[in-house]
Amino acid sequence: MGIKKRKTEEAIFKTLMVLACILVSSSLFLIIGTIVAKGLPYLNWDMVSKVPQGGFYLGKEGGVLNAIIGSLYLAGGATVLGLLISIPISVYLNIYLKKGSLLSKSAKLAYDVLFGIPSIVYGAFAFSIMVWLGVRASLLGGIIAVTLLIIPILVRTLDEVIATVPKELKHAALSLGATRWEAAKVVLKQIRPGIYTAILLAFGRGIGDVAAVLFTAGFSDNIPKYIDEPAATLPLAIFFQLGSPIPEVQGRAYASALILTIIILVIVFLSHVLATKQNKHKI
Amino acid sequence: MTQHPLISVKDLNVHIDGHHILKNINISIPDKSVTSIIGPSGCGKTTLLKTFNRLLDDTANVTVSGSVLVGDEDIYAPHAEVTHIRKKMGLLSQRPYPLPMSIYDNVAYGPRIHGIRKKSELDVIVEKQLKDTSLWNEVKDRLHTPAAKLSIGQQQRLCLARGLAVKPEIILGDESTSALDPISTHKIEDLFVRLKEQYTIVLVTHILRQARRISDYIIFVYMGEIIEFGPTEEVLLYPKEELTKQYVKGFIS
Q1: What is the CATH number of the domain that holds A212?
Q2: I want to staple B221 with a disulfide (CB 3.0 to 4.6 A). Which of A105, A139, B39, B233 is the partner?
Q3: Which residues form the ABC transmembrane type-1 domain (chain A) (predicted)?
Q4: What pTM, to 2 d.p., does this model score?
């Protein structure tokens, strides 16, 4: 191949790459732009400080505080519960078990499958457990469904992060006479920035999901006081408001979407700050 | 051997993934001296070193038979306490791997997990080990900064200080200078020579000149077997075995 042809090929592929990058980043701006344009006129202090008056479907007064609080409780509770379960799983599979052992291989296959299961299936599964246990649609039900949904995300992310830690670091701790748990703590210290990324991904997924909470968390115009009360969530609120025939209520849906987006942005920012702050000891 | 042995290996066989990596190893490593394990890449020298601190346990599909006595303790006995065995041996790997914490905490890590909590006691240990590894003057004003900020040569000396802080009897070095520049290499070699007064040192190296410079004894391993073992001069200058002769002359590598 002549140098001219090779240079043309280089130019074509570079253009394609740049175009793809522009397409993706501009669509982000388009999404945020649309939400801001449509939602900002309806965003006021009442939206974030009051519960709805007259219901979501028809109400033009009040706000979505119940859904904001409900979403935060739900995603927060599920993330905490999910971490409590997935950190031990990752530590056991990656640090305790020998590489390539049958148990670790089959467990990894299992949560790869779980990762691909759509959230509505988790919702239906959690719902059937709730019926069996006699639990009604509530914050607790929603937290359980979302926890099930985000555990595969957390475990997979933690796996990837732990895989970046050289095994010699674990061996360094072991050869000082550390137990495996003590060596695991050294590895966890090393991957702390990665844990924040996992939390961010799980929280983001949890706060944005509709299908898992549709049957399990229920819906309410009030802020849940106890874990067994039904709770509203922002995505469901948006869903109901968009379905309303009243244009004003539809506008409020975009305002709710804007609030949801701002919450996600704050979480991204916070986890980024935390990750950089924790980075200084990383080898 | 005039000195009494600290590590005695008897009929050691190691299989990894069905491959016979170490074959009928029998050796006694003398106390308070430097012993280098030399041999071509893939001959099993690192595996031999890893059997001493049972880090081989961390690899899947490994079977070890035979015994390795450290002092009077068979470290492959069924009830052997692995953490206790590893505490007796400091490991210095190919590249330095400081723990993700400050210089001070790296040295204090070992003593802390073994139960020393008092700051005054830890301060003494940290200062002593950093002085023993000639690092104190370079880092005394920044003990609480991240260990990762040190140069790679300093990191390797820090790893040595960290290992010495748990009071081992043996230092194991796995090509510990292969990532270092000549000056840092020289510093580590000097340390080994100085430390053999108090410790038994076993090194894996592929640099013959290094083996000659610092070791008292040499083990030549080839294809999983020990071909020759003896004082450095004898093995390198007057090898008894044909294979050793060829390796020393550079015909096999």
Answers
A1: 1.10.3720.10
A2: B39
A3: 68-271
A4: 0.85
